[in-house]
Amino acid sequence: MIVLLAAPAFAWGHHYLVTDRALSHPSVTWADEQVEVEPLSAFIEAQAPTLQVTLQAYQEWMAGRKSERFAPQGTLVSTEVELLAACRLNPTATFPLVVRLLPGAEPGERIDPATASKYLKPVAPLVMEFAAVEAGDLVSARSVVDTFTDEPDWGFDHELWVYPSYGYGEIPYGKLTGESSKAAFHMQFGHENLLVKMFAHDVTEGMVVERVELFLRLSRVAFDSGHRYWGYRFAAWAAHYVQDLAQPYHSKALPGERFGYYVKYAVSEKKDEMKAEATQLAANRHFIYEDVVAYGLQQSYLEPDPRYAAMSGWLSGGEAVLEANTAEKLAELVMKRAAKHAPKIDAAILAAADPRFTDDPSYDVETAPDYTVAGVLAAMPAPAWDTLLEETGQDFATAGAATRTLLALARGD
Ligand SMILES: [Zn+2]
């Protein structure tokens, strides 16, 4: 009855900056550890028997959740393609040996981001710089975790709906192809009202928590067997989803709508129109929020602006870790906080930008020629800036602590 939402592209725009700032917290003592770059195939070859046991245990855990969006897969893996199938990921995904460079990095050799993933397209003013590394090179744990917290957006979660044997079922939200085909694995709405639960159960059937669990388990296999590079890379993947859940627009379907909206919707004769309008408004505000914070975080490396420094400070300060001793508890805790905070951040965005961008359902921020993040920032009234910073602070404090908690669980700290 109520079917909602086609999601825009990336939560937090650029996860690597969220991660890098989160790892600057004084409690993180391991970020400078040097680890040896290793191709995925070498890790699989070395750990095939342990991977099999781990994947079987994960499938038992999945079966215990009684999800209707699950079908068991073969767990005997000796190649990348077999591992992708066992994990129910896109079989065409590849695992490049690269590092992502922070804003303002020293000049040097760069590679085309498209060689890391066809989904990577730089959009100014956000920079996107990669360098290649080789098997055997030493890199810091920080650069591995920074770089690969973006990797779940690089293709292995895209367009999975054409593999019925994976058991994901009918797409619950998003689109079958393109960027938003991964929405069900990157957005999860576990805190919707009774009307949504009753009449649009699909909306509540996201699979983000299951991804966190899977990649945390793989990370532990790697750490336990001394494959530190893959320990950090898998942990970075798991951290990606936890960061997604900390983004209110990824944890609440329509943050701007109150219960009355759903009641009105239920009796409306113009359901398609109501749905399209509410979805477009949420998508526009979602996009602006991510764009503003991605730009602010990037600039925090490049210019001494107190507002950008404050954004970065929310991630690198505050509580070290959250109280959660499993992936599932961590994901649930983060999702609950973000869903609860969603109306506030939505109101802050509404107040911070031109109503043309935030309150006009006929406008699409993602494709509009006259929208720029710099324009929004320049026009933002000072009190609205302050409120937006304060509310962003809440989401970032959760995202930062959640990232560190995930890494602590992976490393066995
Ligand atoms: Zn994501």
Describe the fold and architecture:
The protein is mostly helical. The protein has one domain. 52% of the residues lie in helices and 3% in strands. The strands form 2 sheets. A two-stranded antiparallel ribbon has the order 1-4. The longest helix is centred in the C-terminal third of the chain and has 30 residues, at 271-300. The radius of gyration is 21 Å and the shape is globular. 44% of the residues are buried. Residues 1-9 have low confidence and may be disordered. The structure holds zinc ion. Residues 11, 152-153, 186, 240, 244 line the site of zinc ion.
Which SSEs are present, and which pair or pack?
Layout (H helix, E strand, L loop, with lengths): L14 H8 L11 E3 L3 H26 L14 H7 L11 E3 L29 E3 L5 E3 H8 L34 H4 L7 H6 L8 H17 L3 H18 L2 H4 L7 H9 L3 H30 L5 H11 L10 H26 L2 H4 L14 H7 L2 H30 L2
Antiparallel strand pairs: 1-4, 2-3
Helix pairs in contact: 1-4, 1-12, 1-16, 2-7, 4-8, 7-8, 7-13, 7-16, 8-13, 8-16, 11-12, 12-16, 13-16
Bound molecules: zinc ion (ZN).
Zinc ion binds next to helix 8.
List keywords for this structure.
single chain; 4 strands; disordered N terminus; mainly alpha; 16 helices; two-stranded antiparallel ribbon; about 425 residues; binds zinc ion; globular; about 50% helix
Number of DSSP helical runs? 16
* Average predicted local confidence, pLDDT: 92
Shape: globular
The ligands bound in this entry are: zinc ion
Task: Catalogue the unreliable spans.
Answer: 1-9
Helix/strand order: HEHHEEEHHHHHHHHHHHHH
Count of discrete structural domains: 1
Strand order of the largest sheet: 1-4
- Largest sheet data: 2 strands, antiparallel
Give a count of the beta strands, DSSP E runs of length 2 or more: 4
Q: Estimate the strand proportion.
A: under 5%
Helix percent reads 40-55%
Alpha-carbon Rg, integer: 21 Å
- End-to-end separation: 46 Å
Oligomer: single chain
Global structural class: mainly alpha
